[in-house]
């Protein structure tokens, strides 16, 4: 039953893809489609885009655009009576459009999350926990949906989701440390999220592990730091500045200032609270959309001198080093006449050659250029003749 629902969605996507390819295949058809858009008074300035079947995010973008032109497609179908016969998979029907709407609703959340966590121009490590638990709640809700197609897809994805995130003993502690180092969240957010999944004993155990790891990291960075006293550097700097700018008549004030700084230093040493304790006990920062976490740690580096160094290194870790365009690509798992035409001996030779090149001291680049491959896939999808030419040239070269 589950596979039947998925198969129906796949067939619907295939018919919509064929219709888009048919319209984009000639200027005359594109012009006829534009006339249908004008007749339906569609205000959108979007143009039809063809997806790469092995990349789900391109499929999402194609469906998102196509749904805006559903009425134009239906008008074109009514005007051109032989349109369905010109398409191998047939023209999209009402059921196909409904399946597309369901898939868009399902995929949009994951598309947006993938783009956010794959960013390279901003910190992503601190957003991991919120994104994961929002996806979990979304899947839980959809798995109970009255829509059979939506619930089937949600349950299948939930099984894969639990393999990665559902095991308590395999939680990535460094990602939790990154969340704790966000002054908007700290340990409170970790406890809030996991209390909705695990028992109180499990949550307390996890909180203890996170706090112990943060203390160990703080101690390690403190040992590496050459000036362990939080007041020694500031005290020296203040005295040096005042000595330069103040005359000898103010030496009594300098001595008073010096004694006060020494007193603060002794008080800090006598206190049992560490930077970690003080940080966790301080109130949470107000959550804003434009909050600059690195800027916050820079401004508060004098309060949390060692902990700010920990935050600097931990928050530099990206959640994912894979571009969102390739995160859920199925290109490597497709076998067809182009991907599966190599003999076992040729495959062995290629693997050995790549291994030797990687081990070579010379800077030889053997990684594939994903952007060029994506462009090539688009060309192949639009013009099957190009694929045949590439296949023939590859055969001759072998």
From TrEMBL:
Source species taxonomy: Eukaryota, Viridiplantae, Streptophyta, Embryophyta, Tracheophyta
One family name in Pfam for this protein: hAT-like_RNase-H
Parts forming coiled coils: none
Domain hAT-like transposase RNase-H fold: 118-221
Superkingdom of the organism of origin: Eukaryota
Name the record gives this protein: HAT C-terminal dimerisation domain-containing protein
UniProt-recorded Gene Ontology molecular function terms: DNA binding; protein dimerization activity
PANTHER family with a match to the protein in the record: BED FINGER-RELATED, OS07G0624100 PROTEIN
InterPro entries assigned to the protein according to its UniProt record, in alphabetical order: hAT-like_transposase_RNase-H (IPR025525), HATC_C_dom (IPR008906), RNaseH-like_sf (IPR012337)
Stretches assigned to the HAT C-terminal dimerisation domain: 275-357
């Amino acid at each position: 039953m589950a596979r039947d629902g998925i198969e129906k969605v796949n067939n619907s996507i295939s018919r919509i893809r064929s219709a888009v390819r048919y319209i984009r295949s000639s200027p005359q058809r594109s012009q006829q489609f534009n006339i249908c858009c004008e007749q339906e008074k569609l205000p959108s300035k979007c143009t039809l885009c063809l997806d790469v079947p092995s990349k789900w995010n391109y499929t999402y973008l194609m469906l998102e655009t196509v749904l805006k032109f559903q009425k134009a497609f239906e008008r074109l179908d009514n005007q051109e009576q032989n349109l369905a016969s010109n398409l191998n998979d047939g023209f999209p029907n009402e059921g196909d459009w409904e399946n597309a709407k369901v898939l868009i609703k399902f995929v949009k959340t994951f598309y947006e999350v993938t783009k956010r966590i794959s960013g390279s121009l901003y910190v992503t490590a601190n957003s991991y926990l919120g994104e994961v638990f929002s996806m979990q709640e979304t899947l839980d809700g959809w798995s109970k949906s009255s829509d059979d197609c939506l619930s089937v897809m949600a349950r299948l994805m939930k099984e894969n989701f639990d393999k990665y995130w559902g095991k308590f003993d395999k939680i990535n502690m460094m990602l939790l440390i990154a969340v704790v180092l966000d002054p908007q969240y700290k340990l409170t957010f970790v406890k809030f999220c996991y209390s909705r999944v695990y028992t109180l004993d499990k949550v307390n155990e996890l909180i203890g592990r996170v706090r112990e790891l943060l203390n160990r990291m703080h101690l390690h960075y403190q040992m590496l730091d050459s000036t362990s006293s939080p007041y020694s550097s500031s005290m020296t700097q203040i005295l040096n500045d005042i000595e330069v700018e103040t005359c000898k008549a103010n030496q009594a004030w300098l001595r008073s200032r010096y004694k006060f700084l020494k007193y603060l230093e002794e008080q800090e040493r006598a206190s049992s609270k560490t930077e970690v304790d003080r940080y966790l006990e301080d109130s949470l920062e107000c959550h804003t959309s434009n909050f600059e976490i690195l800027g916050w740690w820079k401004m508060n580096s004098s309060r949390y001198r060692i902990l700010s160094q920990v935050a600097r290194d931990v928050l530099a870790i990206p959640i994912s080093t894979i571009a969102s365009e390739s995160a859920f690509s199925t290109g490597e798992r497709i076998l067809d006449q182009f991907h599966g035409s190599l003999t076992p001996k040729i495959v062995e030779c290629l693997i050995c050659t790549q291994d030797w090149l990687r081990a070579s001291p010379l800077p030889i680049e053997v990684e594939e250029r994903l952007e060029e491959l994506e462009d090539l896939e688009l060309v192949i999808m639009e013009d099957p003749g190009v694929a045949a030419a590439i296949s023939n040239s590859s055969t001759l070269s072998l």
